[in-house]
Design brief:
Blueprint: H1 2-13, H2 20-42, E1 65-66, E2 69-70, H3 71-89
Antiparallel strand pairs: 1-2
């Protein structure tokens, strides 16, 4: 998500009418990662067996929920909105 802010921000700064192309590509990649993370959270995708570390957060516990909504779902929604707005920005305006 962080590269999107830089790339789309520079596109606005330079008034690049085609900057939405980069938003589409980056949002598809981010959405795929968010979908994988959501699969881990819901248990659809099983994590491979790994040794436990006491210092890192788990991808499946309750710390990944904000106001009852899982963070991976929130990020997937954000990437979908970025995709939609980037695609809409590429359409020619009716004159």
């Amino acid at each position: 998500m962080f590269p999107l802010a830089i790339v789309l921000g520079l596109g606005l700064w330079w008034q690049d009418a085609q900057a939405g192309r980069y938003g589409i590509v980056l949002s598809l990649g981010g959405g795929a990662i968010a979908l994988w993370h959501l699969g881990l959270f819901t248990g659809v995708i099983l994590e491979p067996i790994q040794p436990c570390t006491a210092t890192g957060p788990s991808c499946t516990d309750d710390s990944q929920v904000v106001i009852g909504v899982p963070i991976p779902l929130l990020s997937m929604i954000a990437f979908a909105l970025i995709f939609a707005f980037s695609a809409a920005s590429l359409k020619d305006p009716q004159t």
